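User: What would this chain look like folded?
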Amino acid sequence: MKTIKLLVNETELDHLKWALSMDVELSDDQLKEKRTLLARLKRMEGHDSDEPIEQQSLALLELSARTTNALHHAKIETVGDLLKKKPFELLREPNFGRRSLDEVKVRLSDFGLTLAARENGQ
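Assistant: Here's the prediction, encoded as structure tokens.
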């Protein structure tokens, strides 16, 4: 397996694998967290490109069709293009609403990334 060029180190991957392997009874919140961790681990292990993540296609984020189409309409084609955008800029795009914004934030956070911040720190 190639090295993962993210803000994630091998220790964190090992910890995620260990946490997901635990066979105990879980609450609904814990099950939701376990599913989130499993999805994150799957994405991180599947990221084996030699290109920096910023140059990768938006397909890497596995966004919904509606969100992907809205981003393509806005001429946002790579993860790097997306990282340059501020939330309010994305919300101005047709067919890109609060749900799409929330989805983008979650998917980016899976890779330890965030959208650009406003000038006043928001």
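Residues 1-9 have pLDDT under 50 and may be disordered. If you want, I can go into more detail on any region.
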